[in-house]
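INFO worker-7 received task bundle
INFO bundle size: 2
INFO processing item 0
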Amino acid sequence: MNDEWGDDLGAPTQFYDPPTESTYEVYPRPGRCVIMDQDVTHTVVAPNEIAGAQPRYSLVWKLILHPKKEKQSMKLPSYISKVRIGSANNGE
């Protein structure tokens, strides 16, 4: 939601994978959207001091998806990129 934001300003969303104790950081970018399951352990890190008073905006929208038909696939379309960390790499 910020028009400009560099990695040097900090404030990434940190994802934590308990089985492997690994973390993965996604930095804010103009036009970037992170789609995730609400049960994924995550936190937003505060901006660095360099950011000064510049706020880091984010928008949270909770969407609950349920199949409309019996045995309907709930997989994301292939054009949506996804990153899997730690134990999430073990399967689809």
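INFO item 0 finished
INFO processing item 1
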Amino acid sequence: MKTQIRLMGALVAALGLLAACGERPPIDVQQIGYRGTGMEQNVNPRIRAALTAKNQIGGIQPPADTSGPLAKDLYQNVQVLSDLSVGEFTRVMLSMTEWVTPED
């Protein structure tokens, strides 16, 4: 009797582990590299639409005021975007922030 209870407990635990493992088939496999390199992308078709909707380009920021001081005059250690006005610099920084960390 104890053996049967242990066996049933082990069976339930094994089924629980198997149910929690990974995604259910079918998974679409797309080759993205040269043949034989093993470079492939696994795509779950059930969640592809949700991922595509999340990865769209965000809205465009309105045009900024080009007059005013330059970014290099107001901020320290600005090397790449130093010739932009403060308004344009802020617009570019906001666009980058929205691109890197979009809100859901």
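INFO item 1 finished
INFO post-check item 1: DSSP finds four helices and two strands in the chain.
INFO post-check item 1: The chain has a mean pLDDT of 85.
INFO worker-7 idle
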